[in-house]
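Project standup — Tuesday

K.O.: blocked on the structure for the chain from last sprint. Re-posting the sequence here as requested.
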Amino acid sequence: MEYSHDDAELIRQPIGYWSWAAYDAVVSRTRGALVQIGTSQPQWWVLAQVARAGEVKSRAEVIETLRGYLTVGAEAVSEEIDTTIALGWITQDPEGYLGLTAAGRTFYERAAALQDDLWRERHAGISDEEYRTTLKVLQRFIHNVGGRAWHQ
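H.V.: unblocked you, prediction finished:
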């Protein structure tokens, strides 16, 4: 791979720009791939929360977990839950607990396989050590400027 600048110039590059550019490239690629199989990234998040849950989750629990993802917000997550219900992927009982349907399991497996492919694509040529170091450095940047970030 050819880098944008030599090593001496790279250390003077703005982290804000490069972290944004990485975000934009990764999120655009992920969302584009998910659209190709008939879903959105927030719908995938909802489906994954329900499909991967060790214990049944309530609507409120899923909203609380996902509302901070890329600053989507509680109202938008609630709408995405309604969409996944309308699509027949999950159900909601009268107490607000969410369950996975057979169609939801099938679609989840398809989308999870796509996410695995995207993970491999993003990580091509990047060692686990480099990835770990990158995340630690980004978390230090966030901490140093008084920001807050969390991801499950």
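K.O.: great, moving the ticket to review. The mean pLDDT is 94. The beta strands are 90-92, 98-100.
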